[in-house]
Amino acid sequence: MKKKFQIDFDDTHQWVFNVSSYHNFSLQHDVFQKYLAVIGLFVFVYLLLLASVVAVYPV
């Protein structure tokens, strides 16, 4: 009886671990995408400023 309970407990624990690690991965993935979007925005603004400066003051 104890052995059976032990196996069930291990399976449940494994399932909880899988769900939590998957959730953490999804969370990190969302944060990573937001991070990339912010970097992309900064690069775009920087290039825009650079282009306007070069247009106004030809090197």
Automatic annotation (TrEMBL):
Q: Which residues cross the membrane?
A: 35-57
Keyword terms of this UniProt record: Membrane, Transmembrane, Transmembrane helix
Q: Which domain of life is it from?
A: Eukaryota
What protein is this chain from?
Answer: Uncharacterized protein
Species the sequence originates in: Euroglyphus maynei
